[in-house]
Design a protein that fits this description.
Layout: E1 2-4, H1 8-16, E2 38-45, E3 54-63, E4 69-77, E5 80-92, E6 101-107, E7 110-120, E8 125-129, E9 136-140, H2 147-159, E10 168-169
Parallel strand pairs: 1-5
Antiparallel strand pairs: 2-3, 2-9, 2-10, 3-4, 4-5, 5-6, 6-7, 7-8, 8-9
Length: 175
């Protein structure tokens, strides 16, 4: 199987999906990353050159005892499913007063800023994007999302001034 790195932008955003605010604590700024360890599936995204042609994109999140957040992202080339692209990096919250703003680094010293727009801990769904509104991802703990939940997440993105008319649904048929 041929493995190569794919763009950090797509992978970086997937990492954010693991950041969350503790249940009932949306306003107190406490983040518990341990609750979101494991695999997340990319359900939809705004088009970007980094993920063009990729299907079955996922991320696996780990929070170590040392307090380091790591993420491994994976996507398959639709035209060549044996071409699996992976990238591993780390993420952190640079300012505890703004726990939904996340900084991610896959290649030192380059970092990127992202925003956790919404998270539903019960359903295992999240929306994340870039501060400049040109990148957007809808992610889930499962490969399938009910259409009414997807519609609600798109509406949340729109309320946060993201343009969703070009959202790309990500094929998740690889497992």
């Amino acid at each position: 199987m041929y493995i190569k790195s794919f763009s950090s932008a797509a992978v970086l955003l997937l990492m954010i999906s693991c950041a969350t605010i503790k249940p009932g604590a949306e306003n107190d700024g406490i983040i518990d990353y341990r609750l979101y360890q494991g695999k997340w599936y990319e359900i939809a995204r705004l088009p970007n050159q980094f993920e063009d042609g990729l299907i079955c994109t996922t991320m696996t999140y780990r929070y170590t005892d040392e307090g380091v957040m790591t993420v491994s992202n994976m996507g398959r080339n639709k035209k060549n499913p044996g071409d699996i692209r992976t990238l591993t990096g780390r993420a952190w919250i640079p300012d505890g007063k703004e726990p939904r703003r996340i900084k991610i680094q896959f290649i030192w010293p380059v970092t990127a800023d992202y925003v956790l727009i919404h998270i539903d801990e019960v359903k295992g769904l999240a929306v994340l994007g870039s501060p400049f509104k040109h990148q957007l991802w809808i992610i889930s703990r499962s490969a399938d999302v009910a259409e009414e939940d997807f519609t609600e997440l798109v509406q949340i993105a729109e309320k946060n001034q993201y343009k969703t008319e070009n959202l790309v649904r990500v094929e998740q048929s690889c497992e």
